[in-house]
From TrEMBL:
This is [dimethylamine--corrinoid protein] Co-methyltransferase. One of its GO terms (molecular function) is dimethylamine methyltransferase activity. The keyword Methyltransferase applies. Belongs to the dimethylamine methyltransferase family. It comes from Methanimicrococcus hongohii. The keyword Methyltransferase applies.
Length: 104
């Protein structure tokens, strides 16, 4: 866990794209360069923009994948994670768990 935290906060975490890159490194065993390229392609930005808080703020709001400050009407929590699942074409365990809870 400390390594994933360092990686996510090193690219400014949820303020930019660090959390997305770290998620791909851990869930799909990608190297950092490969993960950055994958995330950049999926969210439609240049690799260098992943660490740019200003550029990623707009991207995160457009895709509904969560921002650090509250935005009225914007997805938060599990809703944002479900949007991350869709944007990155990956599975997130807590989203599956939540969907299963809704079925019961």
């Amino acid at each position: 866990m400390p390594i994933s935290h360092i990686m996510a906060s090193g690219m400014t975490g949820i303020r930019a794209g660090g959390d997305l890159v770290a998620r791909m490194e851990l869930s799909k065993s990608m190297r950092i360069k490969e993960a950055k390229e994958y995330v950049a392609k999926k969210v439609g930005v240049d690799v260098f923009d992943l660490a740019d808080e200003y550029a990623m703020r707009d991207v995160r709001e457009e895709l509904g994948i969560g921002v650090i400050t509250s935005v009225p009407g914007a997805p938060k929590g599990i809703a944002a994670k479900m949007n991350i699942e869709k944007a990155l074409d990956t599975k997130i365990n807590c989203c599956d768990f939540f969907r299963n809870q809704l079925k019961q």
